[in-house]
Amino acid sequence: MTDQLTVYFNGEFMPEYEVKISPNDRGFVFGDGSYEVFRSYKGKLFYADEHIVRLKYSLSQLRIEMNNVERIIPTVQQLIEKNNLGEKEATIYLQVSRGVFKRMHAFPDEKVDPTVFIRAREFTPYSEELFQKGVKVITMEDFRWTRCDIKSTALLSNILSAQQAADCNAFESIFLRDGLLTEGSHTNVFAVIDDCVYTHPKSNHILSGISREIVIDLCRTNDITIIEKAITEEQLNNVDELFLVGTSTEVMPVVQLNEKTIRDGNSGPFSRRIQQLYKNYISDYLK
Question: Residue 171 and residue 204: Cα distance in Å, rounded?
Answer without folding.
Answer: 24
